[in-house]
UniProtKB/TrEMBL annotation:
PROSITE patterns: MACRO (PS51154). SUPFAM superfamilies: Macro domain-like. Residues 1-207 form the Macro domain. This is Macro domain-containing protein. It holds the Pfam family Macro. SMART domains: A1pp. InterPro entries: Macro_dom, Macro_dom-like, TFA_Chaperone.
Amino acid sequence: MPFPLTLWLVHPDPAICEILLSRFDGLPGVSAQACRFENLPPHDCFVTAANSFGMMTAGIDAAVIAVHGEGLMKRIQSRILDEYLGEQPIGTALVVETELPDYPFIVHAPTMRVPGSIEGSDKVYAATFAALVAIYRHNVTSAKKIETVAFPAMGCGFGGVSHTEAGRQMAAAYRNYLEPPHRFDWDMVARRQKQICYDGNRQVVRG
């Protein structure tokens, strides 16, 4: 079973926080932090809406590096070189220690190979679910657990995804983290696919 988590949805605009939060309605342990990354209170882990090459020089990634230093980017890039042959696939995530005790972990979870539009895709879901799985696997093996996880609005910068759609895909990923299947059949696969690709009866992700 998954470990219980406290999720923070982070954006400096309170109205956007409310849009994101509305998509998580009914899911436990979710709240919003209407502030910039550098003003977040202590937390266990921040998830970056990253690219496949660990180039953390713009957007929320640049704010992360401004706080944690360029050494963090170099450690992430070294792991991408060693573990992913120089290109981290979308749908994978790395848990990286920061060396700051009040903010001990970063999860590097690419939403895109390189900066550009990901609108109309399921990449926000894939990156969010990958981050949650990486945190789960960390918590299985590590004595230092991750319990409080902060997420930005994944894919809403260079990715061009609307805040309501990003929130929907992120919430779908969190729901699937909380409710993993116990067996496989095509009905389960179809339900999950529809959950990811449709907003109500409207298709928003196209294969």
